[in-house]
Specification:
It is a single chain. The chain is mainly beta and 204 residues long. The protein has two domains: 96 residues, Phosphorylase Kinase, domain 1, CATH 3.30.200; 87 residues, Beta Barrel (Elongation Factor Tu (Ef-tu), domain 3). It has one helix and 16 strands. The strands form four sheets. It has a six-stranded antiparallel beta sheet, with no helix packed on it. Strands 1-4-16-13-6 form a five-stranded antiparallel beta sheet, with no helix packed on it. Strands 5-15-14 form a three-stranded antiparallel beta sheet. A hairpin with a 5-residue loop joins strand 2 and strand 3. The radius of gyration is 20 Å and the shape is globular. The N and C termini lie close together (12 Å).
């Protein structure tokens, strides 16, 4: 891990997609055969407007230290990493035996009591024991004991333990550059133009 992606200058546009490789073939009888690899990672593309040279300096200095695709770093996505749900409390995994790989429903405790919409569909969640970030797939309320069950996608790629912390606010993604660092140009008037930047999650 090599630092945290600078929060400024913030990109004007962030594109996000889920990469979930699968194999699909069609026979001569037009029957399809489908097989999923059972893996998942997030991919991002960031774009900036024309910047001043002073604005781009911090960004360029950080990216050059990553040695193109070699290093991983943490990135809290503007707007997207923040939760839509009300949240509250200190959520922890609530299962004596933890949860195995492939699980899609995670019980939590330590949430604020009796909160409607404690977590909402589309929010992200990350567990302390590994780098993968998951998407919440259903709204959930907390009960009077601060318990709530979060439905997630993809299924767990690594096991989580009882009392493992769950992060749902300002969720950090572990990423790397998806290709060598793009060039940037300094134009008359000391304005800088930076090509779009592709990042990819490193979930393990």
């Amino acid at each position: 891990m090599s630092g945290t992606f600078p929060s400024s200058p913030a990109p004007a546009r962030i594109s996000i997609r889920a990469l979930q490789p699968s194999f699909v073939s069609v026979t001569h009888s037009l029957a399809s055969q489908r097989r999923s690899r059972g893996v998942h990672r997030w991919a991002f593309e960031l774009a900036w407007p024309t910047l001043r040279r002073s604005e781009i300096a911090t960004l360029v200095a950080f990216l050059e230290q990553q040695r193109d695709e070699y290093s991983t770093f943490s990135y809290v996505l503007p707007r997207l990493s923040s939760a839509r749900g009300a949240l509250g409390g200190t959520p922890l995994v609530n299962s004596a035996g933890g949860y195995a790989v492939g699980t899609t429903s995670i019980a939590l405790d330590g949430a604020s009591n009796n909160v409607t919409g404690w977590v909402l569909t589309g929010d992200f969640v990350k567990f302390a024991g590994h780098a993968k970030v998951y998407r919440v797939t259903a709204d959930a309320n907390s009960n009077g004991s601060g318990q709530v069950t979060a439905s997630i996608w993809p299924p767990l790629l690594s096991a989580v333990a009882d009392n493992e912390a769950a992060t749902l606010a300002d969720v950090p993604f572990t990423v790397r550059l998806a290709s060598p660092m793009p060039e940037y140009r300094i134009e008359p008037g000391l304005f800088a133009q930076f090509d779009s930047l592709a990042l990819i999650e490193e979930p393990f």
